[in-house]
Specification:
By secondary structure, the protein is an alpha+beta fold. Helices cover about 35% and strands about 20% of the residues. It is built from 21 helices and 18 strands.
Length: about 600
Amino acid sequence: MIGVISIIGMIFLARLFYVQIIEEEYALSADSNVIRKNIIYPARGIIYDRNEKIMVANNAAYDLMVIPRQLKDFDTTRFCSLLQISNEEFIRRMDKAKKYSRYKASLFLGQIPKEEFSYLQETLYDFSGFYVQERTLRRYPYRSGALNLGDIGEVNRKDLDRDAFYRSGDYIGKSGIEKFYEKELRGEKGVEYVMVDVMNRKKGKYKEGRFDTLAVNGKSLYTSLDAELQLYGELLMKNKLGSIVAIEPATGEILSLVSSPSYDPSILVGRNRGKNFILLLHDTLKPLYNRALMAAYPPGSTFKMLNALIALDEHVVTINTEFSCQGTVSKPIKCSHNHITPLGMIYGIQQSCNPYFWNTFRNTLNNPKAGSVKKGFENWSRKVRSFGLGTKFNTDLMYEKSGMVPSVEYYDKVYRGVWNALTVRSLAIGQGELLITPLQLANLTAAIANRGFYFRPHLVKSIGEPSNIISKYNEKQEVEIKAEHFAPIVEGMRRVVQVGGTARRGAMDSVTVCGKTGTVQNPHGDDHSIFIAFAPMDNPRIAIAVVVENAGDFGGTWAAPIASLMMEKYLNGVVIRKEKEKRILEADLITPD
């Protein structure tokens, strides 16, 4: 008898242990009828521009949560009408919730704006198993900088597997700053235990909040962007394909990073995010493609200053070395400009003379001190790369491309080991296999403006407080060109803009601008218009690169005036050259005539 009673007792104990500890269904259904564990979501960190103007803020919103096990029969037609969803959508969302768990709460419908929530709140008690959880929605006061700022969306299975912080229905940064600084922006969740009745209505705190924990809001980000300049740049590039990158040379801080066409970041917020994302994804103009970071072009004549710098540093020319030009009959590279000949370096930059730069490039590769053409090319390639070309900067810029600076190994493979300066002569004028992103072009300009160094371009200056500077971006990057060689290059760039060069449209009143135009051959259509510049000439505050795709004109026609207006806006705070501005704003370089 004792043995039988002991066995029965052990069976009951085992069953109690199973029901109370192991079996999720009984424990959760019992608790959920009385106590609900609410996750308190922190407000996501605010994103500011360099002047502490808000670029990304938060609005109140609500998530509709569901516990499938607690559902009772209800009028689904009325429910769908209330939420403005179809019956098919209801079934799909409910199946997803049941697949996640029948006993745990999961997201049914997210990011319900405050205005819609008031209608839902009045009737929610009719639908047992559903309850509302407070969240926030992103808000964009300037409605610009979409690709830089990024967006947030619901976590996927990979996100859940990668980080235990998230649960089904949570939101995470999907691109841009929102993704790169996700851990800083997201904050820390809190927990609230509340008593609810059979109608799922909140009756008060459990144990007077003894087990509750507070949420910790996400950290704010202080970016280097100028919100007004960013908005203005997107306005100037409307109805144009291309990009603008503006950098503060003294810090590497990105002032403006425009990719055109752009879009209003607010369309990827709320319940219409998925639908709008699909529309953007299938747009033939590719607004989700960040041309400033991902598009790579031959730099054209904007590259000539770098070839001149390398030739000076290799001591194969001086600023007084002259080469002749026969214009359109010049060989092996013709010149499209009419100018005095022979010409030296400063005048060669001013006139963008192709034969002049072919000769400097040839001398660099044929440098007797190098010992061979291939060794001369290695020296050239190494010094080009020291300006940040052909590589990624690896800062907080998402999806950055490295571009292309060809190597000896590359040409050995292409030409089976037999090649010389004449073979690769297109590099002398920034054509051929050379590919550079607009970001790299702007950084090259900043390095010239600084006379031999740069800081890696980045978007965020500090985290949490303006004084919490990200120190790793303050490391000076020295280029492999002696500082004394930059003076004639800068003077040549000054003359390009100020003294009858190819970029007269880039000039500004009362500010000395140094720049260089480029017309880039495009095998798929009209040529691209490129312009790089910095200003003022001494103690420069802005370095800029502008690319206008398929413009079909010299760099001075479209890219130079856009850069000039951007510099005027940044340096003076206001644009007074309204006729120049009007011409750019009214130009449509996308729509066929």
